[in-house]
Amino acid sequence: MQIIDCSGFELEKAQPNTSEDFFNQSEVTFVEDGEEKTFHLLYIRYFDEVFPEFTPFTEDPVFQVSGRDVLFKDIVALVCLLKNPGFRNRKRVYVNTQKEFSQYFKDIDYNKVKELFQVLADKGSYQLESPLLFIEQP
User: Fold this and answer.
1) Quick check: 2 and 123 in contact, CB under 8 A?
2) CA 87 to CA 99: how far, in whole Å?
């Protein structure tokens, strides 16, 4: 799988009576078997406020590569895709509990995540050989 983009953004109200402004969306665009796909992960915006509880990061942006501020919402879909490779076959996933959300961030090698973003910035894509390379082994 070749990763070509990771990004995230805050949803905005489409109508005055909707609740989109309580949610964020994180996306990973990748090429697999010659087909470009985008995985969308929708989650409660509150999780952006509490991520220091389940990641080593203490502030947003979580890191910087090649002059780009990488925000927490930029890495969420990537981390979830790494922890659950089956999401490659899904277009959209919604996570609404902090317990489930935080489980995706356990045992992630965040140095490898930063390296992936650096390669994306330098080369425009990252060849993912195995998601297991991003999981810390005991």
Assistant:
1) no
2) 18
pLDDT digits (tens, 9 = 90+) for 68-122: 999 999 999 999 999 999 999 999 999 999 999 999 999 999 999 999 999 999 9
- Per-residue pLDDT reduced to its tens digit, 55-79: 999 999 999 999 999 999 999 999 9
CB 2 within 8 A of CB 129: no
**Cβ neighbours of residue 107 closer than 8 Å, sequence gap 6 or more:** 135, 136
In order, the DSSP letters of 9-60 are EE---SSTT--GGGEEEEEEEEEETTEEEEEEEEEETTHHHHGGGTSS--SS
One-letter amino acid at 66 equals S
- pTM of the model as a whole: 0.92
Sign of the Cα torsion 123, 127, 131, 135 reads negative
